[in-house]
Design brief:
359 residues, alpha/beta, 49% helix
Length: 359
């Protein structure tokens, strides 16, 4: 395997010299793009879009046709894994994802097993391979999964939740049951990400969306520990190339050093963590990804450019002050892009980041 023609994203993750600060956007293929909405209409619904490799490839490439982004990310959903476990994923209009069979009974939890990604998730792997061919070695392809704990939240709650009452009750009353779910999830996520790597993913990200909802002690025991298990089981190289791993815990700024110690190559930051302070805290141990507030994209173009420049200057200032490398930053949002975002403001963001002073 040879690196893509534009490999700045991979080099930044590995803290190698780069030509400019690379960027991609979480949820960059999504409802803010009219072309995505048209493809989704043709697919019929969101799950049909995810489960058709041709459609998944089409929408993965759409933001790259519109913007000069430095990486593509597989179009899929984190809940494909528990769906493959037989929990019955569906999407209710206006309510988000739901499971027909949430994990509430002990027998169901004890019977839970990790799916074979080459069997139950073959459509995702086929999409990865098709996207890689379509990219034609232009930019890297990112694979991803939800973290074991984030998946468990949906599996136990039966869908999204404002307070995670069911999963947290299990955490405190029956930690043995939650640990069993997390153990199975960690195995499933490891196998799933390795299968994506073998199918063509050149970097992977673990989305720990709900880890920040935990107490300090619970985060380390029920989220961080299982992400570390996943990372330790991931393929570090494939076809002679390093495969970097990014960990993103929304609301995880207080555990930054601990996340950096998991063995990941990069830590994703949400908008609540100062990136300069984060750079001072982790030094050169890991790259940092983030952390533009997605809501800032609703501001004027001048304000979008000013906020992006502030983040870039903050990172570089901290790196220079520490006497370390001035690379190791992948520009991104602090969470997924909002569906109502003006597409033209994304152009402003991309141009501002790429036009920033040379590293």
């Amino acid at each position: 395997m040879t690196r893509p023609h534009n490999d700045n994203f991979l080099r930044a993750l590995l803290r190698e010299p780069v030509d400019f600060t690379p960027l991609w956007l979480m949820r960059q293929a999504g409802r803010y793009l009219p072309e995505y909405n048209e493809t989704r209409r043709r697919a019929g619904n969101f799950l049909a879009l995810c489960k058709n490799p041709g459609y998944a490839c089409e929408v993965t490439l759409q933001p790259l046709a519109r913007y000069d982004l430095d990486a593509a990310i597989l179009f899929s959903d984190i809940l494909t894994v528990p769906d493959a476990m037989g929990l019955g994923l569906y999407f209710a209009d206006g309510e988000g994802p739901k499971f027909e069979r949430p994990l509430r009974e002990e027998w169901a939890i004890r019977d839970l097993t990790a799916p074979d990604p080459y069997d139950h998730l073959r459509y995702v792997l086929d999409a990865v391979a098709e996207i890689r061919r379509a990219l034609n070695n232009s930019v890297p392809l990112i694979g991803f999964s939800g973290s074991p704990f984030t998946l468990a939240c949906y599996m136990v709650e039966g869908g999204g939740s404002a307070d995670f009452r069911s999963v947290k009750t299990m955490l405190y009353d029956r930690p043995d049951l939650l640990h069993h779910i997390l153990k199975v999830n960690a195995e499933a996520v490891t196998n799933y990400l390795n299968a994506q790597i073998e199918s063509g993913a050149q970097a992977v990200q673990i989305f720990d969306t709900w880890g920040g909802a935990l107490s300090h002690a619970a985060y380390r025991e029920f989220s961080l520990e299982y992400m570390q298990r996943v990372i330790s089981g991931l393929k570090k190289t494939h076809d002679g190339e390093r495969i970097p791993c990014i960990v993103f815990t929304k609301g995880g700024g207080q555990w930054l050093e601990a996340i950096a110690d998991t063995g990941c190559d990069a830590v994703g930051l949400d908008w609540t963590t100062d990136i300069g302070d984060a750079r001072r805290r982790v030094g050169d141990k890991v790259a940092l990804q983030g952390n533009f507030d997605p809501m800032a994209l609703f501001a004027s173009p001048a304000a979008v450019a000013a906020e992006a420049t502030r983040i870039l200057d903050n990172y570089h200032g901290a790196a220079n002050a520490a006497g370390g490398s001035n690379t190791g930053h992948v520009f991104n949002l602090g969470h997924g892009i909002n569906q109502h975002t003006p597409p033209e403001n994304v152009s402003v963001l991309v141009d501002t980041v790429h036009g920033h002073r040379k590293i």
